[in-house]
Amino acid sequence: MNILITGASGFIGRHLINLLDRDNKYKIHAIYNQKKSVKRLKNTIWHKLNLFNYDEVELLIKEIQPTHIIHLAWYTEHGKFWNSEKNEDWMNASIKLFQIFKKYDGKRFISAGTKAEYFDGEFLDDYQNSTFECYELDKPNPDSVYGEYKNLLNMQLNEIDKKGNRSLVWARIFDTYGPYENEKKFCSYVIKNCINQKKITCNHPQLGMDFLHVQDIANAFKFIIDGDFLGTINISSGSTCTLEYISKYITKKFNSEELLELNSSSNDRRKFFGNNTILKNLGWRNKYSIKDGLDDLIKFYVKKYE
Q1: What is the 3-state secondary structure (H, E, C) of the chain?
Q2: Could you list the residue range(s) of the whole structural domain that residue 9 is in?
Q3: Is residue 264 part of a domain?
Q4: What is the structure's pLDDT at 36?
Q5: Nearest-CA neighbor of 186 among 211, 216, 217?
Q6: Residue 36, domain CATH
């Protein structure tokens, strides 16, 4: 199996490559733009490529003839990507990548979607006590530029896919955490502040989110690669965990409960998660419970800063 992975040096990409590289049935072509992994991998070839240079993209795909593409690359600068104009640029580059892949008879194109394509009622008083279980067939109703362009990309790729042999898998990823995530994300923020003995603020303690460890996400992509599923699929835990639970669990591990400030005035009690029946039907099961996953992330940071 000849696989091309975009965003290969990113948060999910690095874990996915490490997982796939262990199996000799995969030949992996990993794309990076600025920084590639320094770890030596036996079945992985790295390619420096600007996905906005369409001529270079076509030359590479023509040369390596990938049977599969896993498209993870996107603009993800923490706090800025939600409403950035760069989302449109990435949508257009992704469409071109798919068109070139189809031109050279690629078999399956697995693209990362997002939970942000669904409606979650954020900032709307009428939904502060609502539970949202998101199914793949639900009509998307995004409320961010990021979600809008991901959804628009999905629609446009599907239109292209109808014109030939079907090849598209659209994988909607929910809330991620794990080693090498952006250190400003909630789980890492709490752990780092415990290590540094700094105040921890939890603004919406009763907000329930669908957290899934990055290695479970990587394994989900492996199950999708190995199967023959086409269509939209949620990569999610299928349940929620409150921010209060996470922050209390971590601070207790560090005996730093006094650092935690819970905002008791928050009325946001939304529960937002993805139904993962389709993913489970492929044989996937999560390895990490939320406790095991947080322990793994704590271990990662303790080793990093010891």
Answers
A1: CEEEEECCCCHHHHHHHHHHCCCCCCEEEEEECCCCCCCCCCCEEEEECCCCCHHHHHHHHHHHCCCEEEECCCCCCCCCHHHCCHHHHHHHHHHHHHHHHHHCCCCEEEEEEEHHHCCCCCCCHHHCCCEEEECCCCCCCCCCHHHHHHHHHHHHHHHHHCCCCCCEEEEEECEEECCCCCCCCHHHHHHHHHHHCCCEEECCCCCEECEEEHHHHHHHHHHHHHCCCCEEEEECCCCCEEHHHHHHHHHHHCCCHHHEEECCCCCCCCEEEECCHHHHHCCCCCCCCHHHHHHHHHHHHHHHHC
A2: 2-177+212-237+274-287
A3: no
A4: 66
A5: 211
A6: 3.40.50.720
pTM score: 0.96
Number of domains in the chain: 1
* Residue 247 placed within a domain: no
Is 95 inside any structural domain? yes
Residue whose pair of structure tokens reads 């409606």 in the numeric block: 119
Q: What is the pLDDT of residue 27?
A: 96
What digits encode the pLDDT tens for the residues 158-207? 999 998 899 999 999 999 999 999 999 999 999 999 999 999 999 999 99
- Whether 265 is covered by a domain: the verdict is no
| Separation CA 142–CA 116 (nearest Å) | 6
Q: pLDDT per residue over 71-106, tens digit each?
A: 999 999 998 999 999 999 999 999 999 999 999 999
In this predicted structure, what is the pLDDT of residue 38? 57
Q: Which residue has the tokens 């935690």?
A: 260
